[in-house]
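Sample intake — Cation-transporting P-type ATPase N-terminal domain-containing protein
Collected from: Meloidogyne javanica
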Amino acid sequence: GFILPKGNGQMYQLDKLRYFTYRKLKYFWYPQKNCFVTISQLESELPVNYFHHCVSSQTGLSDNSVEQRLFTYGKNLIEVKVKPLVVLLFKEAITPFYIFQVFSVTVWYMDNYAYFASIIVAMSVMSIGLDVYQIRKQERKLRSMVHTDDQVQVLRNGGKVEDISSANLVHGDILLIPPRGCILQCDAVLMTGTAMLTGESMPITKVAMPETDEEHGETQIFSFKEHSKHILYCGTQVLQTRYYPGKHVQAVVLRTAYSTLKGQLVRSIMYPKPVDFRFTKDLFKFVGFLACIAGLGFLYTILVMISRGSSAWKIIIRSLDIITIVVPPALPAAMSIGIFAAQMRLRAKQIFCISPSTINTCGAINTVCFDKTGTLTEDGLDFNCFRAIFPRKDLPEFGNELHDFCTDELPENGELLKAVATCHSLTRIDKVLNGDPLDLVLFRKTVIRSPPLHSSVESEVELAVIRQFTFSSHLQRMSVLVHNLSDESHIHHLYCKGAPEKIASLCLPETLPYGYQSFVDNYAQQCPSNSYFFLKFSLVCGCWLQPYLGFSLVMIFSDPKGGYRLIAVASRRLNLNYVKAHKAKREHLECDLVMLGLIVMENRLKPQTIGVINQLNRANIRTIMITGDNILTAMSVARECGIIRPNKRSFLLEAGDTKCRDGRTHLVLKQSVSSSDDVLELEEDTFSCCYEQNQQPAKTAESSYHLAISGPTLSVICEEYPEILEQLICVCDVYARMSPDQKQLLVNQLQDVGYTVAMCGDGANDCAALKAAHAGISLSEAEASIAAPFTSKTPDIRCVPTVIREGRAALVTSFGVFKYMAGYSLTQFVTIMQLYWLNTNLTDLQFLYIDLALVTLVSLFFGYTPACERLAKIPPPTRLLSLASIFSVIGQLTIISFFQVFTFIYTSMQPWFIPYATPAGPEPDDRRSMQGTAVFCVSMFQYITLAIIYSKGFPYRRAIFRHKKQKQLLSGSSSSHRFERILLSIGNEPNWLRILTGGSTSMSALNSSFNGQQQHQTNSYRNSFPINKQQNGSNGEEEEGIFVGNRRRKHSSTQNNNSTTSCNDSPQKKITIVVTEHCADDDNSKKSIVLNLNDNP
């Protein structure tokens, strides 16, 4: 059967197991909860003694158990399959974008619009090919990164050591780790010995899982988070192991394949979180609006074509063609131009983007969260000084600042030097010290100078580290148990170092100097300006602030002086034998300590930090610090870099030790502005919150104060004060002692309030927050770079404003391109609707000139206008359906329609106007008419005008006229259109001479040039060309027609015909004169010039 955890430390067996697989993970039906769960959720019900039971028997799994578990959990392989080309091509081709393109191209080919259709087909094939190439390249790269298969040793079948492939590892296997290390292929729980692993930028030590404690007994439940220091993660490299000579370090396999931490990271890359951006939603809504307009045009075309007696085939083609005009198929490609151009500019600045769709989101960023160490400050800490504590008769006191561990100036017992030399996690690998950079700095300080000969401490002391308790972010300390090898007694010493407040809570009160906490605060804080030193915060101000927070609080004042990171060191003398020293619990050893002193470290800001933070502040972009460091140190760095501004008050919110009358934890609010230590207790009343639920985050952030909070306090607020959480995060700018899960929680909460959040970090602790943010920016090339959409090769935060600037430029470009494409479609829609009324259409070359030579080229250069060099205070609009955007498009459509309709009507009112006649027989209906030519010429300038209007420049992009290529393109389009207008006008307009002469020749001047010779010329022309006489079926009159090119033009002597009546209604006769020049003997090759003259009777 199948064994599953039952809860309360018990297991039970199932005969049948139901499961399904989704995105590489198996989900099992769990009867205890009546739901499907993953393997990682099942292990939360495992008792700790389950792992000890696995290794106690030293027998391992049997072949039957292995086979059953392989069937249940699958092989231990993280496989990234490279899809075949056929599959990739099919997936790309069936996207809505390409399906609509297939529809459009089909319609165009059926309509004999082969030029542009062929170009679109070629561009689509190239686009699909490039997409498939990029996808295969990324899949191959990911497969090469994650695919590993190694030989490992396990205990199986009664304790036999077997060499197997790592792909056959199953849950519950006893894995043997070699002394010289290996690369782990699974998540495993370390059960015996210790292992040195590569962590983020330094090796870390993992220790064996302890036996169940007395409090929980055998019912203690395994926790992946709480027992992380005992877990060996997949993909990490074991540098070395330590255990009894001749014995292997053993670990129990916990997770395999995609259930491992590495597998989850690979899954997040393979199935990224969709970008929830309002612009994308508005884009689809606006396309739906265009589709509605296309539907109206579809019905209009059908009605007009039916009324004109057109054939069914023509009605279908023309109706479907309207849809391709109003909803342009090239819209998605045009929208990606700005993103692609921004991605290229970012790459040139050593900023690489693996998620291009995130670039547009960066344009809406209004909040940036920063990690502290390695991001705002330098990676390592510099030693500044230490303050030893000297015992006195009444209370101990701090000594002077010492910048070197000179034993003659230390207390006589030399315990501080021994503590610094032994309390670390350093190890020597290939004769090189490896470990925490902080430990390296302190250890080297202890050996940089030999102790003086007159020292009271022995010149050579051999200390052996018996046991090591690794650093825990939850406990905020580490410790070691040390024995002096020259001492034959059972005396051991425990040396402990960590956060000053945590170490002080573990020390005997009589070993702490007077004013210890204020002494620590003076080092940890930094005063922003001298003007704050004597500021008193009255009860009235406290009552003013309290309604903003909505909870009871206490106000404390202190006097800050300097800004450093402090480490407290303490010790304890223990009388234990070797066996008890190894079995004693950590909490029993780390108590009743004696304070030895404080080590003062300095974490310097990176040179670029202050300038970047000031730049973001000037742009009204909120900056937040999220760190795992001490809260006072975090506030000090925040003041120094500008996150806490000097013109605002700063408060520190902490969870108190007392309870309110409603049972909730009392919250304490401190302000570091006064030299007094007055404490003001506010009455515990109910205050109404003055925050409105619909208040915009940008307005909320503009408060007159800053708030700082620690991770434990944030947990208290989430549990006991959830109603004020949203209001709190709107005014809190410094978050300290934050765990990776809390960082992710904070980012999610900021997003829920309405902020568009960017996260900038450099370590694996920031991975969760980087993935949760709208835009994650990594300064590391390790794990964080895989989780973040952006990776900067320059290890400072200058990349943040660069990404925001390029995001704003890309967003404005996307807005402009979309409006331009929508305006272009609607402009052409209005033109076509008028031509359909005449039962004609644009020619293929006219369509090609608009779609390719004008619109496509303009769209291509639209996104290549570089971003502005400075961040503007006002962010660009993010709503495509905002009133400004809607009125912009509707306003342009109204203006465009007015001028086109005016041109259409005005042309028909001219005395020289010849109405369009539908051709007889199979002749195409897209021949030019006078009205069509006039509307076409006007629309050309409208397309160019739209490009200029929607190509927005300052303050998000440089001006369009500074972009040479786009300026030359628009100028060239205008010039080429003028030349084409001349060519198209010959044969259709009477004022062709005026066009050629720049408009100086008028119609009256043209008429006067024929004065005295008009009748003679008319007769000669009429005698020179054949005149076709037809019997008018309606009134029996004969009409004379003169052939012009391939068209029959008619003129009549009746005054009722609009074509024979002048604009002033005077009795006139219109005479159409056609001059035709035959080329050689080819009747089909000829040039025609039409002159329309008014013959006054």
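Post-analysis note: The chain has five domains: 2-78+148-270, 85-146, 281-351+805-989, 361-378+602-803, 996-1095.
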